[in-house]
Design a protein that fits this description.
The complex is a heterodimer. By secondary structure, chain A is an all-beta fold. Chain A is built from no helices and twelve strands. Chain A is globular and about 45 Å long. The model of chain A has no long low-confidence stretch (mean pLDDT about 95). By secondary structure, chain B is mostly beta strands. Chain B is globular and about 40 Å long. The chains are: A mainly beta, B mainly beta. At the A-B interface, β5, β6 and β11 of A face β4, β5, β9 and β10 of B.
């Protein structure tokens, strides 16, 4: 069974600063994908970034980067130059790539960006 | 195409009533998923369609829940004899075949059972 742990229920960051949101995972699958989603107060889940378990380099998408440490089973999200619009819930998720199509999500971290 | 559309956005119902939600995925996406999200938690998988075929169902999907995608386009999720524990956000998502990337989610239907 897969499990995602996000130990930070809430985080605060000053505008224009960088912030790291923690995510650890547990799986016995040899091949899997790791994802981060943003959920603003409007409710929709917005895909941010993806990391494959066999990818050698850490994924980056604009201001988002994923600090992937496979041996430690961690996939932390780094947001650089925080903006007020980054205030939202952030979910780490995992999906096995060999079978099945459903995600396992973590409990989320609420990020608040302060002006 | 403006993305995944879900209707209604909000639904308040009395315990014991039946409710039905609709999801219109992105038109070229063959795969459609339903998730449930309770307050303070991440979404939990309910069921998955490949075109019109329902290929996977979570044990969370009790016999009071039924989902359909009759023509491989829009999908409906019906909850019969609603209970207060059914109060949650119901999220629909879609993806194309072979996608290893994220789904496109709708804005969800928030159900409140009183």
């Amino acid at each position: 069974a897969q499990k995602i742990t996000q130990t930070q229920p809430g985080m605060f960051v000053q505008e224009k600063e960088a912030v790291t949101l923690d995510c650890t995972y547990d799986t016995s699958d040899p091949s899997y994908g790791l994802f981060w989603y943003k959920q603003p107060s409007s409710g929709e889940m917005i895909f941010l970034i993806y990391q494959g378990s066999y990818d050698q380099q850490n994924a980056t998408e604009g201001r988002y980067s994923l600090n992937f440490q496979k041996a430690r089973k961690s996939a932390n999200l780094v947001i650089s130059a925080s903006q007020l619009g980054d205030s939202a819930m952030y979910f780490c998720a995992m999906r096995p790539e060999d079978y099945g199509q459903n995600f396992v999500f973590g409990p989320g971290t609420r990020l608040s960006v302060l002006p | 195409d403006t993305g995944v559309s879900q209707n209604p956005r909000h639904k308040i119902t009395k315990r014991g009533q039946n409710v039905t939600f609709r999801c219109d995925p992105i038109s070229e996406h063959n795969r459609l998923y339903w998730y449930r999200q309770t307050l303070g938690q991440g979404p939990e998988f309910l069921t998955y369609f490949q075109n019109e075929a329902q290929l996977e169902k979570s044990r969370l999907l009790s016999d009071r829940f039924s989902a359909e995608r009759p023509k491989g386009s829009f999908s409906t999720l019906e909850i019969q004899r609603t209970e207060q524990g059914d109060s949650a956000m119901y999220l629909c998502a879609s993806s194309p075949d072979g996608s290893n990337y994220g789904y496109t989610f709708g804005s969800g239907t928030r159900l409140t059972v009183v």
